[in-house]
Amino acid sequence: MIEFQNVSFAFENNKEVLRNLSFKIEKGESVGLIGANGAGKSTLMKLIVGLLTGEGKITIDGIEVSRKKLYEIRGKIGFVLQNSDDQMFMPTVLEDMMFAPLNYGLSRGEAEKKVDEVLARLNISEYKDKYNHKISGGEKRMAAIATILAMDPEIILMDEPTSALDPYNRRIVINTIKELNQTKLIASHDLDMILDTCDRVILLSKGEIIADGPVREILSNKELLEANRMELPLSLT
Q1: Which domains are delineated in the chain?
Q2: 87: pLDDT confidence band, cut at 50, 70 and 90?
Q3: By C-alpha distance, which of 107, 104, 130, 125 is closest to 115?
C-alpha cells in the first residue's frame, strides 16, 4: 500500500533530514512512527502526500508519488497534520468537513450525512456549526481528526493525533483509531497510544530507521528507547 525505496530528503540548506529509507506498509496495517524531536517523522509523512519532494521512489497503492499523480494519490489519503491550524482553513467545522467529500464527488446531502455520522462517532456533534477561530486547541484537534474521517480515505496518516487532548477525548480518539479498518501510519510521542492502536512500529533516529518490528517488542525495549531519547510507555513500567 505504501512503499519507500531508497528515499532521502534534505532542505535547501543541505541539512539532511531523511537518509536512504526503504520500507513497506501493507494494506490494513496499523503502523506507529516514533522517534525523538527532529527524527524526521513529519517530513516522512509530508513526502507521502507530496507536500515535500525528495530523492528515491515512493509508491501509494502502486502509484508513484509525482506531481502528475497528486490528485489521485491525495484522494486515497487522509492526513491529520501536526498543527491543526494548517489543516482547518474554512470558516466552520461543517464546511471543513464537507470540503473533501464534495470535492471527490459526494452530493451535499451525502456529505452532510457523513459529517453527522463522524461527529457522533467522536461524540462532538455540538462542534458542527462552530467557527474554527472560536474553538480551543483541543476542540480544533478533534475537529481536524473528524475532517479526515469524513473523507473515508483508504489510507490515514496522523501526526501527533492526541496532542492537546484531554484524557476523555484522548480515549475517544484511541478507541476510534482501533476501530478503523484503513491502512494507518501514526507518528506520535504518545507511546501508550501507539501501543494501544498499532501492530508494528518504525523507529526513526536522525533520519534513519533504527528499528522496525512488532509494537510490543520495540516499546518494551527500555535500552533501545532510552538510547533514542524516549521512555517506556507508562503501561509497561
Answers
A1: 1-76+155-164+178-237 (3.40.50.300), 88-152 (no CATH)
A2: confident
A3: 125
